[in-house]
Amino acid sequence: MGCAGSSQSKPDGTVKKIRKPKPWKHPQPITKTQLTQLRDEFWDTAPHYGGRKEIWDALRAAAEADLTLAQAIVDSAGVIVQSSDLTVCYDERGAKYELPKYVLSEPTNLIRDS
């Protein structure tokens, strides 16, 4: 038995299904190259802010996968999904993992590189 809330199952026994974040807009229009650079910088530095590297790796794989595969990744890694868009997750030890929307989806004002 774990602590209350230590499972990603809801009280009715269903697992919280992940979904893509709602559409969002970057403060300034951003190119695909700039978005990729922002994402790489986040994933390179994220483990230094706490949590376990293997959970960060699983979250990155989930963020870069389609929804079905992402669900399988977070389930198998034991990630507890607080926000169904993956912006807030926890591991089994209670460490919090916060993901910015820019690693989970593209902004509405993305400039396609030519």
UniProtKB/TrEMBL annotation:
Basic residues: bias regions: 16-25
Bias kind Polar residues: ranges:
1-11
- Which residues are the signal sequence here? none
Q: Where is this region: Disordered?
A: 1-31
Every copy of the DC-UbP/UBTD2 N-terminal domain together lies at 16-113
Q: Which domain of life is it from?
A: Eukaryota
Instruction: Tell me the protein's name.
Output: DC-UbP/UBTD2 N-terminal domain-containing protein
- Name its species: Flemingia macrophylla
The upper taxonomy is:
Eukaryota, Viridiplantae, Streptophyta, Embryophyta, Tracheophyta
